[in-house]
Write a structure and sequence with these properties.
The protein has 141 residues and is of the alpha+beta class. The chain is built from 4 helices and 6 strands, in the order E-E-E-H-H-E-E-H-H-E. The chain has 2 domains: 3-32, no CATH class; 41-139, K homology (KH) domain (GMP Synthetase, Chain A, domain 3, 2-Layer Sandwich).
């Protein structure tokens, strides 16, 4: 795995992965004020926990032959007061819209992701951050 992060005269920074795909990074609003053009690195770490676990959840539910309409993860995190201001706690609420998935199916998929498969969540937990989650199923008729 390889990526390059580049600064060229002004923010945002841009990361370029081995496939040439770009990710933009800007400073948080508390550093530069409002009006940034991209998420901060800490925002992207938080988003990455959600994205990583959602990839697992989608895969698991598809293997169960469930129909997925939408899946959202709302993530909230608390950070240490002192530098480095690491994440100390994180809460995730997964919300799935599906015509045939049960809450038990969703909870099983989330548990498998968060306890076994999601490497980003595993790295965050290894830093001492406590991650909790909840699930909500919106069934379609």
């Amino acid at each position: 795995m390889h990526t390059t992060v580049t600064f060229h005269e002004k923010l945002p920074l841009y990361g370029t992965n081995a496939d040439g795909l770009k990710t933009l990074f800007d400073a948080s609003s508390d550093l530069l004020g409002p009006g940034g053009s991209a998420a901060s690195p800490m925002d992207t770490v938080l988003e990455s926990v959600g994205a990583c676990s959602m990839m697992d959840i989608i895969s698991i539910l598809k293997k169960m032959r469930k129909v997925l309409i939408t899946l959202e993860a709302d993530l909230d995190a608390q950070r240490a007061e002192e530098h480095p201001k690491v994440f100390t706690a994180m809460q995730i609420k997964y919300r799935l819209t599906s015509p045939d998935c049960t809450l038990a199916d969703l909870e099983k998929a989330v548990r498998l992701s968060m306890e076994t498969y999601c490497s980003v969540a595993a790295m965050i937990r290894a830093s001492g951050c406590v991650i909790t989650w909840s699930t909500e199923l919106v069934q379609m008729s």
